[in-house]
């Protein structure tokens, strides 16, 4: 979840800086509020599977660096035995 929140917050801050840099004397508050809500709701929902995959990859790489790491057992794909 931390990766997801970080990406959403980073995108929101970037969007806020761009909008404010172009409209600093007369800031459109209603439009900025709607755009902020869309970015902070839609981006985490879209990025959630990717954040989960990134976190699993980081965790896998950390586990593989342990000295007592055992790779998962290989299964024979031709056998149809139920476990």
Structure overview:
With 83 residues, the chain is mainly α. It has one domain. The protein is 69% helix and 0% strand. It is built from two helices and no strands. The chain has helices spanning 2-22, 29-64. The longest helix has 36 residues, at 29-64. The protein is elongated and about 70 Å long. The protein starts with a helix and ends in a 19-residue tail after the last helix. The mean pLDDT is 87.
Structural descriptors:
single chain; 83 residues; mainly alpha; 2 helices; 0% strand; elongated
Describe the secondary structure blueprint for this structure.
Elements: H1 2-22, H2 29-64
Structural class: mainly alpha
Tally the beta strands: 0
Assembly level? single chain
Largest sheet: none
Mean pLDDT score:
87
Helix content: 55-70%
Distance between the termini: 33 Å
Summarize the structure.
With 83 residues, this protein is mostly helical. The chain has one domain (2-64).
């Amino acid at each position: 979840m931390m990766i997801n929140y970080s990406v959403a917050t980073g995108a929101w801050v970037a969007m806020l800086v761009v909008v404010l840099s172009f409209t600093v004397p007369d800031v459109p508050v209603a439009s900025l509020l709607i755009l902020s809500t869309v970015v902070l709701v839609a981006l985490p929902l879209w990025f959630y599977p990717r954040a989960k995959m990134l976190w699993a990859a980081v965790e896998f790489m950390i586990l593989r660096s342990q000295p007592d790491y055992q790779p998962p057992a290989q299964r024979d794909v031709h056998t149809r035995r139920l476990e």
